[in-house]
Design a protein that fits this description.
The structure is a homodimer. Chain A is an alpha+beta fold. Chain A has a single domain (about 5-199), classed as Glutaredoxin (3-Layer(aba) Sandwich). Chain A contains ten helices and four strands. A four-stranded mixed β-sheet of chain A has the order 2-1-3-4, sandwiched between helices. In chain A, helix 1 (about 15-30) runs antiparallel to helix 6 (about 105-120), helix 5 crosses helix 9 (about 150-165) and helix 6 (about 105-120) crosses helix 7. The longest helix of chain A has 18 residues, at about 60-75. Chain A is globular, with a radius of gyration of 16 Å. Chain A starts with 5 loop residues before the first strand and ends with a helix.
């Protein structure tokens, strides 16, 4: 019987997803485990809980804490971090691209570059030029990729992916999913891989 | 200049506080650091965020996840755990006792015993008999202790302590506080002590 994969469910706007994106590939390599990248949108899940923005904006004390926590953790992990001037940024187009090309070898580099643009370079990842520039820097045809990412077929695919997240009872990002087992948060990254190893 | 203490802010109803109560004393001993126990009530803080019960009851997916997470973590830490038949339980009297006698050598044993009653033995810690029984088992005069804990002076003291938590921008439990630095959640227990060591 095949083992399930380690699925990495993330949202491009999510601060703690950024920390995990930076860390997950090395940990996966150490364990010899392949990651399945699962971009999705937290927005509809937050909406269904009655939130019209990130809970970090709604609950001020928690939000202030989160920024301090992310700063401390990025120092601990020795990960670059600069608080974005806008939060949360709209990761819709980036998620459509990452999902449309999930099978491509370059997708992990693209995902990492978008997170760095948002959380290190303070670039607005909702702008098509920011994403084009990343894709072009990889020697890819940005126009072709973005045109396909915006097709109705692919828009529907992302909507279905985000609904699948909700159906799996995912309520935040990052979430590491192994079969029916959900590990929520950057703090559970190591535990998720250890769980996978035990299977 | 004296270092600040490691303050352990907790609520007797809090599941993740239970995990930390079980772990903190050994970690503090290893570091040679004294803990200052800070019982408080999360209820007023939750109320000020518009919640009339634990967010784990309000947000179902997050609540279901929490119980699974606590079960997995208690196995990882090899800590006994049984999901209480009632959640959250009212820890008001227990908090009043723990605060009134915060300077006593027995208070850490009392705190641990109350958490075990709630999260291992599934006893209703809002019942005075449950707390009396714990105090009596330590050879203490439960009646005298509880009578003092219920005085207006001590009720006010707990109200002030809970307000102080809010003033410090504490929004959840457990929280480890070192000067102005807050570390929230059982996941940050080790980081809090490492932070203290660096001062």
């Amino acid at each position: 019987m095949d083992k399930p994969s380690v699925e990495f469910w993330f949202d491009f706007a999510s601060t703690y997803s950024y920390l995990s994106v930076y860390r997950i590939e090395q940990i996966a390599r150490e364990h010899g485990i392949t990651i399945r990248w699962k971009p999705f949108l937290l927005g509809p899940i937050f909406n269904s809980q009655g939130w019209d923005t990130s809970p970090f904006n709604i609950y001020k004390a928690k939000g202030n804490y989160m920024w301090r926590d992310i700063t401390r953790l990025s120092e601990k992990y020795q990960i670059p971090f600069k608080r974005p001037s806008q939060f949360p940024r709209n990761g819709l187009l980036a998620a459509r691209i990452a999902l449309a090309y999930e099978q491509e070898g370059w997708v992990s580099n693209f995902i990492r570059a978008v997170f760095i643009a948002n959380f290190v370079e303070d670039k607005d990842i909702s702008h098509e030029e920011v994403l084009s520039s990343i894709l072009n820097s990889f020697g890819l045809d940005a126009d072709q990729i973005i045109t396909y990412a915006k097709t109705q077929e692919n828009k529907d695919k992302l909507r279905e992916q985000s609904q699948l997240a909700a159906d799996k009872a995912i309520f935040g990002a990052p979430s590491f999913v192994i079969g029916n087992e959900i590990f929520w948060g950057n703090d559970r990254l190591e535990d998720a891989f250890l769980w996978y190893k035990k299977l």
